[in-house]
């Protein structure tokens, strides 16, 4: 059973999996390597919210990394008319490869637990209840065949979720609310549906959802990872010489780190099945992200790294040379700032990600705050009392403590101190924001009593 705890007002840092500035530098450098036309196509996809943004992101870092390791041509036509992403030659090895991603988006649509939680949250707001306090438990059913078994959540189809919430859940909640119940509950369990919902306003703003994992692969050639590899293997048909598929993680459970189990097949086994069924493909390179947190108390930022899984046929002499090429390619990658799950969610959103919003440093006569947050305050989009919240309107409906940065500025003003120096502390390409530092002088007679 998977249980997810979340707040109704979300705040994230980072963009997709790699930082925007890091991607932009690589886009500029790629123009000199593969030409404006190919890069313009990638840029158009990066600027369009949706799943394909993650695929375009992986193409940027892979193509840039390969271009730094040898001669790279992108979109060179095959006899079939297909235009693979990469034709690579470093003088020792030459290959043609396509870059793609795999995600569980299709499975998520079949098992829309997240959509159900959002609809319940939105609907209960009409009852005058505070944000959050929702606990949803979803039951599951198993379909078994001669090839294996698959798990499905017992939920209505995504197109019927909204009417299900309005017609089946909300009348029960209204009745219990009118009866003075402190906690509202609804439970449905039959062959098709299995849902338990509890709404406890005292637990606002936190909500949770629990369900059985439905996206762990149990059949080697019937899962999102295999489907993505198969599509590219078929597109490479007709390419001369060595061919391969390079696949980046777009939130695919088959690539997630987990203990070996006889109940699920590994990403390595899935890639080997692809090579078994498609003899024209020589290698598969899977790229995902691993993270390690050194300690939780006090909390610290996890260390993330790109984790490669290179799969070749047993005893293939190409492996040594491919390992050297891809090892050098990975050295050109920027460090990941997000895991694929969060990166995939952020890629679907419009606008830009948050920076150092809400962060500050107070030291003596200096106040340090987010450059982007300051711009938004000056532009009238937020105030310091919003405490850097990404969803400003939602945050204003929740109780909050006085903002320390605002209090610090107020103290300086009451002391009659004005800024004597304002400086910008620029961060690197793997950060999404800079810092503005205000340095204050002694009391100024312009706004303070004479001494």
Helix and strand layout, with pairings?
Blueprint: E1 2-7, H1 20-34, H2 36-46, H3 52-67, E2 71-73, E3 86-89, E4 94-102, H4 105-110, H5 113-124, E5 134-138, E6 140-145, E7 148-153, H6 161-178, E8 184-189, E9 194-199, E10 206-211, H7 224-235, E11 242-249, H8 267-277, E12 283-292, E13 303-312, H9 318-331, H10 340-347, E14 360-363, E15 366-370, H11 371-378, H12 392-395, H13 404-414, E16 417-425, E17 435-443
Parallel strand pairs: 4-11, 5-10, 11-12
Antiparallel strand pairs: 1-10, 2-3, 3-4, 5-9, 6-7, 8-9, 12-13, 14-15, 15-17, 16-17
What does this structure look like?
The chain is of the alpha+beta class. It folds into three domains: 2-104 and 216-347, no CATH class; 106-211, no CATH class; 360-443, no CATH class. Helices cover 32% and strands 25% of the residues. It contains 13 helices and 17 strands. The chain has helices at 20-34, 36-46, 52-67, 105-110, 113-124, 161-178, 224-235, 267-277, 318-331, 340-347, 371-378, 392-395, 404-414, and strands at 2-7, 71-73, 86-89, 94-102, 134-138, 140-145, 148-153, 184-189, 194-199, 206-211, 242-249, 283-292, 303-312, 360-363, 366-370, 417-425, 435-443. It has a six-stranded mixed sheet, with helices on both faces. The chain has a five-stranded mixed sheet with strand order 1-10-5-9-8. A four-stranded antiparallel sheet has the order 14-15-17-16. Strand 6 and strand 7 (148-153) form a beta hairpin. It is flat, with a radius of gyration of 26 Å. Mean pLDDT is 90; it is low at 8-14.
